[in-house]
Structure formats: C-alpha cells, structure tokens
Write a structure and sequence with these properties.
By secondary structure, the chain is α/β, with parallel strands linked by helices. 57% of the residues lie in helices and 14% in strands. The protein has six helices and six strands; from the N terminus they run ααβββαβββααα. Helix 5 packs antiparallel against helix 6. It is flat, with a radius of gyration of 30 Å.
C-alpha cells in the first residue's frame, strides 16, 4: 500500500517514455526527419553564397525531390544560370552506390530543372565505401553530380560551378588556353582521390585491428585453458591437490602477456 503511489507514478512515466519512443519512430518514417539537416545545409551555404552573389533556397518542405537549390546567375562566360540541386540525407538505411545515386539524382535534376546535383550524406555511413567513399563524381542524362559527405559540401558546389564554367568557356572561346584550369581541376580530383584512399585504408586497418583483438582474446582463453589443464595434470601426478594459487600466479603472468 505504501509503494502503490510510487508504482503508479513509475507506470505513468513508463507509458510516457514508450509514447515518446513511438513518436520518434514514426517521425523517422516521414520526410520531417531530415528537416534539421536540410536547414543546417541551407544555413551553411547561405554565408558562402552571399560572398559570390549566389542564391540558396530550402525547398525540401514541399515533399518534392531535392531539398536545397543553389542558383548562380549567368555572366559573360556562362550565359545560362547554374542551378544545383542538393539531396541532403541525414540517415540512411543502406550505403548508396553509384548506380542508385545516379538514378536518384536524375529524378532530382529533372524535377527541379537543375543542371547539376549533389547527393549529400551527413556521415560516411550513407555512402558506399568501395564505390563512393567521401567523394565521387558521376553524370546522368540531366547533368553531372557529386556524392560526398557534409564536410565537402562547399567544395562540391564550387567544383560543379567550375566544371560548368569550364565547359562553357571551351564552347564560347575555343582559342582560350584552358589547360592550366584543367590542371587545377585534375589536382583537385587527385587530392580528393587520395583522401578517399586514406579513409579506405584507415577503415580497413580498423577492421584488421578488431580481428587482431578478437584473435588475441581467443589466444588468451586458450592459454588459460592450457594452464588449467597443466595444473590438473600436475595435481593428478602428485596424487594430491596443490595449494590453491601455487600455479596460478604464473598463469596470470602468461595470460597478461
């Protein structure tokens, strides 16, 4: 009777927690789950866009493909405006590869009438390590795309703009020597490729480290079992039990090593 009020309160608290968990789980299945990340992406781009006269629109709330759009008006080099659609993924049920991303970006570019796209994952978990890593380039029927993690967002936007301007420059003024620009683009690709290689090797090293630790644990258990067997054999050979701890200190030393 004395505990009844407390039990009632605990039961009510448990129901409230379960209700919150259910609401969170339901939210995970809706488009609202990515809203904070989309807003973060738009905010990150705003500061950069103001410096070069670009415009940033957070359009994810209309439940249409694509979450953020960056536009840059045409100039003497690029007559048409540059429009980049960004698909921001906060959480992914699986790591996306090239084929899936290319198909996804084709839908986004067509829907938003954009000429370039970015598939942006908050973490590496949303991108296939083998095919994408932290950065990868590709193209669909509607234009080029870049798949990358959040830390490369600004780089990806700038890279796509440079690519667009370089293509327009070749078409408008073929006499202009664009070799130096192409060398810089190549240097960027090389640097990004090296980052991907380093990250991949670190991941592989981490996996090897886990295997090594696991094998070491097995070896420690085998050492302990072997020592126990030795102790049992010694007791049987002497026809009597050795004092407790007679062999154990040596076993502990070996196992620790």
């Amino acid at each position: 009777e004395a505990l009844k009020p407390l039990l009632t309160e605990i039961d009510g608290l448990a129901k409230e927690v379960r209700g919150q968990d259910a609401a969170a789980e339901a939210l995970e299945q809706t488009t609202l789950k990515g809203a904070p990340f989309e807003e973060d992406v738009a905010e990150t781009l705003q500061a950069w866009a103001q410096a070069i006269g670009a415009e940033v629109y957070h359009v994810g709330g209309d439940n249409q493909p694509g979450d953020v759009i960056v536009t840059l008006r045409g100039d003497d080099v690029v007559a048409d405006s540059i429009s980049i659609v960004i698909e921001a993924r906060d959480r992914c049920s699986r790591a996306m590869g090239r084929k899936a991303i290319s198909a996804d970006m084709a839908t986004k570019l067509a829907q938003r009438n954009a000429n370039a796209g970015i598939y942006l994952s908050r973490t590496q978990d949303g991108l296939s390590m083998r095919e994408i890593g932290e950065w990868a380039e590709g193209a669909c029927d509607y234009g080029p795309w870049v798949a990358c993690t959040q830390q490369h967002l600004i780089t990806a936007v700038r890279f796509l703009i440079v690519q667009r301007r370089l293509t327009a420059l070749r078409a408008a003024a073929p006499e202009v020597d664009s070799a130096s620009i192409e060398q810089q683009v190549k240097a960027i690709r090389t640097a990004l490729g090296r980052i991907r290689t380093i990250k991949t090797k670190l991941t592989e090293l981490g996996a090897c480290s886990d295997v090594i630790d696991e094998q070491a644990d097995h070896l420690r258990e085998e050492i302990k079992e072997a020592l126990s067997s030795i102790e049992d054999s010694m007791r049987s050979a002497n026809g009597k039990k050795l004092p407790l701890g007679c062999v154990a200190p040596a076993a502990e030393v070996v196992a620790a090593n």
